[in-house]
């Protein structure tokens, strides 16, 4: 009997935030829900004691506009209002509150390959080659070595002619993995293959040639993933593709036009 009780105890993970379900020698530990339905509280879980509901806070805005307020005051829900954006200057702060820091401090002269994307073909990799220059001091522009740039990602990909589909894509590295709903089986975005980056001469070539593997723990994406986002764009029209990254503390975005061939929409 005593041995049996010891085995049963081992089936529990000792975490008050999970429900332990066992069948035979196999056990599953599922996260419990701590949602109390109260907009004034934060729904948290302490592995030692279980659900806790401290007063909640709401955060809104980016960069210098970021603000945090109590979710409620005397039981009355509060509205979080971001600060007012200002002109971006080279000061290490996201003054214009667009998620990029000192992006005006980087001049990016870029070309794309291929410049025409045929959605009906498999294709190969997509790449963007850029010459990056630090222009925070306009009188003394300095080249930015490609080796100092963070892993870049596709931050915009939409019709160049239709502003209705314009959307800013988040940095995949900042999104949760595993996802609270979908777990690990989802792609967070389209990131360059950092190992394939070419930093020869004065240019840097960012290559997107890793096919999506359905695992959020990897940052990948290639021309097929780009083509999938272009599927609704009309044949023989232009699309805007932008990459975003950081050169040291300086954020930058580089955008180029590609011609989309999509005869299936005719």
Notable traits:
five-stranded antiparallel β-sheet, 2 domains, 2 helices, 6% helix, four-stranded mixed β-sheet, 266 residues, 17 strands, mainly beta, Immunoglobulin-like
As a percent range, the share of helical residues equals: under 10%
Q: What is the β-strand count?
A: 17
What fraction strand?
A: 25-35%
- Give the end-to-end Cα distance, rounded to a whole number of Å: 74 Å
Structural class from helices and strands?
mainly beta
Walk me through this protein's architecture.
The structure is a single chain. The model is unreliable at 1-9 (pLDDT under 50). Strands 9, 11, 12, 14 and 15 form a 5-stranded antiparallel β-sheet that branches. A 4-stranded mixed β-sheet has the order 10-17-16-13, with helices on one face. The protein folds into 2 domains: 38-84, no CATH class; 103-265, Immunoglobulin-like (Sandwich), CATH 2.60.40. The protein has helices spanning 2-10, 223-229; strands spanning 18-23, 26-31, 44-46, 50-52, 57-60, 67-70, 72-73, 76-77, 106-113, 116-118, 126-134, 142-143, 153-159, 204-210, 221-222, 237-247, 250-261. The N and C termini lie far apart (74 Å). The chain contains 2 helices and 17 strands. The chain is mostly beta strands and 266 residues long. The radius of gyration is 24 Å and the shape is globular.
């Amino acid at each position: 009997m005593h041995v049996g009780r010891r085995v049963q105890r081992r089936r529990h993970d000792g975490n008050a935030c999970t429900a332990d379900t066992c069948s035979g020698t196999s056990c599953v530990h599922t996260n419990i829900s701590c949602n109390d339905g109260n907009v004034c509280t934060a729904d948290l879980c302490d592995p030692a004691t279980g659900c806790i509901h401290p007063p909640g806070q709401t955060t809104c805005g980016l960069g210098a506009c970021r603000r945090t307020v109590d979710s409620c005051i005397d039981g009355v829900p509060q509205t979080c209002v971001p600060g007012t954006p200002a002109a971006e200057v080279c000061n290490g702060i996201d003054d214009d509150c667009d998620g990029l820091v000192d992006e005006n401090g980087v001049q990016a002269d870029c070309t794309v390959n291929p410049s025409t994307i045929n959605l009906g073909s498999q294709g190969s990799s997509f790449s963007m080659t850029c010459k990056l220059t630090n222009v925070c001091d306009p009188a003394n522009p300095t080249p930015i070595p490609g080796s100092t740039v963070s892993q870049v990602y596709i931050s915009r990909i939409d019709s160049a002619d239709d502003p209705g589909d314009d959307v800013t894509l988040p940095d995949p590295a900042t999104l949760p993995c595993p996802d609270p709903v979908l777990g690990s089986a989802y792609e967070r975005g389209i990131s360059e293959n950092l190992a394939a980056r070419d930093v020869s001469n004065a240019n840097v070539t960012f290559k997107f040639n890793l096919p999506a593997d359905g695992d959020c723990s990897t940052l990948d994406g290639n021309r097929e993933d780009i083509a999938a986002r272009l599927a609704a764009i009309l044949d023989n029209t232009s699309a805007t593709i932008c990459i975003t990254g950081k050169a040291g503390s300086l954020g930058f975005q580089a955008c180029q036009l590609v011609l989309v061939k999509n005869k299936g929409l005719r």
